[in-house]
Amino acid sequence: MGNIILGLFMAVVGFLCVWKADWIVNNFGHIPWAEEHLGTAGGTRIFWKLIGILIIILGFGIITNLWQPLFGRIASPLFRSIGS
Q1: Has this prediction a pTM greater than 0.70?
Q2: Where are the beta strands (DSSP E) in 1-84?
Q3: What is the spatial distance between Cα 57 and Cα 53, in angstroms, rounded to a whole number?
Q4: Residue 23, class by beta-carbon neighbours within 10 Å (0-12 exposed, 13-18 middle, 19+ buried)?
Q5: pLDDT tens, 7-28?
Q6: How many Cα atoms occupy the beta-carbon half-sphere of 59 within 13 Å?
Q7: Are the CB atoms for 38 and 19 separated by under 8 Å?
Q8: The predicted structure's pLDDT at residue 76
């Protein structure tokens, strides 16, 4: 039950990051790294939308209890290189 509540909370937070990216940028300012690497004008908005999508994916992974295999597979090349 706790996983469902946590996952839904994360999905809602991620949705709000995607939906209100413009509000976040207006209130907290631009991120210079994002402006340089993700676009000329609007890189920060794209950054917040990408963060929101990742939070949504992680939230649904927690709800379905698939977050460990999903992120384990994503992070496995990193851990293989550290172990050798």
Answers
A1: yes
A2: none
A3: 6
A4: exposed
A5: 999 999 999 999 999 999 999 9
A6: 17
A7: no
A8: 75
